[in-house]
Amino acid sequence: MPTDFDKRAYWHHRFSTETSFEWLLSSTEFIAILKPLLAILEPSSTRILHLGSGTSDLQNHLRQLDFLDVTNVDYEPLAVERGRQLEQQVFGDVKMKYAVADATKSLPLPNGSNAQSPHNDNKFDLVVDKSTADAVSCGGDEQVRRMAHCVRECLADHAVWVSMSYSASRFDIGELPFDVEVLAKVPTPKNNATDPDIFHWCYLLRPK
After folding, report:
1. Which helix (H) or strand (E) holds 133?
2. CA–CA separation, 78 vs 163, rounded Å?
3. Which end of the chain is more exposed for a tag (fewer CB within 10 A), N or C?
4. Domain 3-207 coded CATH 3.40.50.150
5. Domain ranges of the chain
6. Are the beta carbons of 181 and 167 closer than 8 angstroms?
7. Are strands 70-74 and 97-100 parallel, antiparallel or unpaired?
């Protein structure tokens, strides 16, 4: 992964022309992994944070499952606008939230209150990202740590963070406020049967 994936200039240039792209796997495949977690949540009262939403249509899949309190965050304004457009194209309106924020510095809460609030009812019930932690990792382990602490601050105690990554060791770093386990191991397509097995990794992070 090129080191400029952690640079805002890279994403501004990319999103100036890109209208739709899915990292690692499709939203349909990611939703299939999330389904057991989503099944125990009540859509009408669940708050979801989608980190590094980019030009993914993941938010549309969540809305189709009746999850409307979804906050889609990217630190490039063009990506945020692309997300609104994708929702508008499918549903004819925009009901979900979109915000510009840097996941290594601070993240919005569902009602816009301060992330330091001790009240769990003002925090997210689920945080998801599809390769956003990978992009952040181009800035080094400390950036991933900062992202993890920002997520923890806006995550309710009973909630979890699900992160899709190309790396088998993405969260093998110290000082994380989460217990980490592998939720799914997804094989990547092969061109030839003799090609080595390569996987994408879906991590489940529970607050400590």
Report:
1. helix 132-137
2. 23
3. C
4. yes
5. 3-207
6. no
7. parallel
State the DSSP code for 34.
Answer: H
C-alpha–C-alpha distance, residues 157 and 133, integer Å = 21
Q: Which of 30, 2, 162 is nearest to 11 (CA)?
A: 2
Per-residue burial over 175-203, b = 16 or more CB atoms within 10 Å of its CB, e = otherwise? ebebebeebbebeeeeeeeeeeeeebbbb
CA 112 to chain centre: 19
How big is the chain, counted in residues?
Answer: 208
CB 76 within 8 A of CB 8: yes
Residue bearing tokens 């989608």: 50
